[in-house]
Amino acid sequence: MDDAIVLYPGPGIGHVVSMIELGKLILRRYSHRFSIIILLSTGPFDTPATTSYIDHISQTNPSISFHRFPYLSVDTSSSTCNIVAVFSEFFRLSASNVLHALQQLSKTSTVRAFIIDYFCASALPVARDLGIPTYHFLTTGAAVNAAVLYFPTIHKQYESSNKSFKDMPTTFLHFPGLPPLQATRMLEPWLNRDDPAYDDMLYFSELLPKSDGLLINTFHDLEPIAVKTIREGTCVPNGPTPPVYCIGPLIADTGEDESNIAGSVARHGCLSWLDTQPSQSVVFLCFGSNGTFSPAQVKEIANGLERSGKRFLWVVKNPPSNDKSKQIAVTADVDLDALMPEGFLERTKDRGMVVKSWAPQVAVLNHPSVGGFVTHCGWNSVLEAVVAGVPMVAWPLYADSI
Q1: What proportion of the chain, given as a percentage, has pLDDT over 90?
Q2: What class has domain 2-143+189-246?
Q3: Does the pTM of the predicted model rise above 0.85?
Q4: Which regions of 227-385 does DSSP assign to beta strands (E)?
Q5: Which residues, other chains included, contact 164 with Cβ-Cβ below 8 Å and sequence gap of 6+?
């Protein structure tokens, strides 16, 4: 039987892209040894961009195959729990699909490794029961993962207080290898111990050291202290730490990013616009797949860009919905005329470009006209800017931005 490595990405286009890039990396190094099979859970998190990107990969990378699970519905209407709890429930419900897929794949291939996303932790015991070596692929940096690994220890230290970290503004938490962190500035799912997401994050953190290895999308010279701290076992004081592999920077290459995450094989118009701009003259503003601002904030950003007099390329998404009962946003076209200050687009048309929803970020960052990047500090964006050599203005918004 052929040898296969099975990958299981988490929710959202960023996690899918990172896992596919990992698959391509494995194939580049071991093209004659393994085939790559990617398990895809389909549900309310899917977008047309994700579907289009996967179709593109299927057509251009014949050694990567996809196994799609049946559509799984999950309640996204609760306004009281964090989106992480929704993700966790979704992947818990997917565990039976994972079991069936691994059993079926094992009939035709020898599954040498099963590599799972952080959010797919519920699949770890499934694979271990089948005797399949299982590794976590961590799409955030070593510093965040040092905190994640140590989180069960922090939880025990403060468990008796019965207080949530959101209610402890004068408390500073001490994670190995990291500066002291104010309790109220923890990752959002860690702030409220009454939120189901808190228990989910604790569960994820407790399972990480039980895998056969941790693959982190970073490189040693970028985060030497955090990498050293994890490898020495300081972050898991009550048990062994699995082997740690720094496999980054793992990012989408310029050509593919330019061609198809948004579903078009044509060159994006913003790249043609950048071709007409002076070298290193354009400030690029982009805030990730979930980075949104209120209408008032959008107008303030626009006013700042106009008053700066600088050239800019700005990716704008719809503001967050006022309907707090919906955890999963419904994609709708962006009405720039309604969002922007009156006359802004006309007054800045000679030195600025506003793009709706998405731009080919890797291609933009590697364009010679771009001289700066205003970013939400998602780890993929940080790595892409580092590799491109573009200075960043940090505007941490969500997720892995501690």
Answers
A1: 69
A2: alpha beta
A3: yes
A4: 244-246, 282-286, 311-316, 352-356, 370-375
A5: 191, 192, 193, 194
Residue 288's pLDDT is: 84
Torsion of CA 258, 259, 261, 263, to 10 degrees: 140
Question: Average pLDDT for residues 78-99, to the nearest whole number?
Answer: 82
Compute the radius of gyration of the chain from its Cα atoms.
Answer: 22
Contacting residues for 363 by C-beta, under 8 A, at least 6 apart: 254, 255, 257, 258, 268, 271
DSSP reduced 3-state for 354: strand
For residue 62, the model assigns a pLDDT of 87
User: Which residues on adjacent β-strands are paired with residue 113?
Assistant: 5
The full set of domain ranges for the chain reads 2-143+189-246, 267-394
CATH class of the 267-394 domain in this structure: alpha beta
Q: Which residue has the higher pLDDT, 49 or 309?
A: 309
pLDDT band of residue 77 (cuts 50, 70, 90) is: low
DSSP per-residue letters across 207-226 = HGGGSS-EEESS-TTTSHHH
